[in-house]
Amino acid sequence: HGQGEAAREGEEEGGSPGRRAGAEEGENREDERKQDGEGGVDVLPLYAMLPPKAQAAVFLPPPSPRHRRIVVATNVAETSLTLPGILYVVDCGRVKTRTFDHASGVSRYEVQWISQASADQRAGRAGRTGPGHCYRLYSSAVFSQRLSRFTAPEILNLPLEDVFLQMKALGVPLIENFPFPTPPEKKALQAAGALLGDLGAIGRREGEREGGLTSLGQGMATLPVGVRSSKMLLLGRKMLGREEGKEGEEKGGMALVVALVAGLSERDPFVFPDGREGGGGTRGGEGEGEEGEDEAGEEDEEEVLLREKARALKLERFRQWHHPTSDALARLRAVGAYTYAHSRGGSAKFCRENMLHSPTLGRIYDLRKQLSRILNRRFEKQPSYMPLHVTPGMKPPTPAQETALRQVVSHEWMAGWKDDRRE
């Protein structure tokens, strides 16, 4: 399991995926590829948030048989994909992992060492369709001493309030004593129970170690979103659900709450413009005055201007989603615009042109429909309830509605927060 030997010239033709820790390092390196000259190197990125069309490019043949395909990938290519023509794997031994601090209740992403099992999986990507080799950028000592045998189960690195709530709904009386296959830390379970208490989902009588579900908690357990989001739906109905929508439109306030919760339940739907500067003009000052260089410099300058113009357009389209007071309301803008584009059959093109991630917004759209159906079934017998439907008629929130939506979001996301500062 030591470092791989240096790649030899004249090895048989084939591609190579380079393993990077995160998507930032795997962004499109088209500018660098152009500077490589007519050498036959085709570099492609591969990560989860890459648009589907760009992801599909790794399955297409290279521009010519003389081109060597290099795929710069995150661990999305570790187990789920078999890339054709890949004979060599360069493994950096790192991965960007989401971790959760149960004491502070804050999630963050950290670059960590992979496990030995993941290293073996990465090595297995080499030569799936023929003989191959894996080059590891770390020593055998690192493999045996710093890499754990297996990746830690997710239950140890994720917030547990959703699991806690569902187990309570199933009638488990004392979660701390439940025989988990991999038991989480007791303080993590206690923190989850405390948060559910702050949200009003469980109530504890005097002398009880763990409380039972309240009527609010029972309602929250029926919704396919996180506990904060489910409380937002039920609280939002009280604050905004009495507004009436016109015929052919969604019910005003409650439709906004459902769209907002669906938008917050998925990852960020915005595609951030590539902030790196292009390399096309970095060579213009070399060899000035030599024959033929002026024309090449002009071409480079024109290419740089076109690239800068395209980048400025991307930034302008990205900034159209900005909201001056709330990132949550910025997502609501994108959700509403996507719904309108979807109704006209052009959602994929709309997302490409407006710096939005189409698969993410597609999942948000489906979740809106699911939440609307669940709420309709739950409240349809109430006389004042108007059924919800996902239609393109949802209007942007009024200033009063924006204020109410911010209150709903802040009320639930501040639950369980503790100020640990000392005087």
TrEMBL record:
<dbReference type="GO" id="GO:0004386">
    <property type="term" value="F:helicase activity"/>
</dbReference>
<dbReference type="GO" id="GO:0003723">
    <property type="term" value="F:RNA binding"/>
</dbReference>
<keyword id="KW-0547">Nucleotide-binding</keyword>
<dbReference type="GO" id="GO:0005730">
    <property type="term" value="C:nucleolus"/>
</dbReference>
<protein>
    <submittedName>
        <fullName>Deah-box rna helicase</fullName>
    </submittedName>
</protein>
<dbReference type="InterPro" id="IPR001650">
    <property type="entry name" value="Helicase_C-like"/>
</dbReference>
<dbReference type="InterPro" id="IPR007502">
    <property type="entry name" value="Helicase-assoc_dom"/>
</dbReference>
<dbReference type="GO" id="GO:0016787">
    <property type="term" value="F:hydrolase activity"/>
</dbReference>
<keyword id="KW-0378">Hydrolase</keyword>
<feature type="compositionally biased region" description="Acidic residues">
    <location>
        <begin position="287"/>
        <end position="302"/>
    </location>
</feature>
<dbReference type="GO" id="GO:0000462">
    <property type="term" value="P:maturation of SSU-rRNA from tricistronic rRNA transcript (SSU-rRNA, 5.8S rRNA, LSU-rRNA)"/>
</dbReference>
<dbReference type="Pfam" id="PF00271">
    <property type="entry name" value="Helicase_C"/>
</dbReference>
<dbReference type="InterPro" id="IPR027417">
    <property type="entry name" value="P-loop_NTPase"/>
</dbReference>
<keyword id="KW-0067">ATP-binding</keyword>
<dbReference type="GO" id="GO:0005524">
    <property type="term" value="F:ATP binding"/>
</dbReference>
<feature type="region of interest" description="Disordered">
    <location>
        <begin position="1"/>
        <end position="40"/>
    </location>
</feature>
<feature type="domain" description="Helicase C-terminal">
    <location>
        <begin position="1"/>
        <end position="171"/>
    </location>
</feature>
<keyword id="KW-0347">Helicase</keyword>
<feature type="region of interest" description="Disordered">
    <location>
        <begin position="271"/>
        <end position="302"/>
    </location>
</feature>
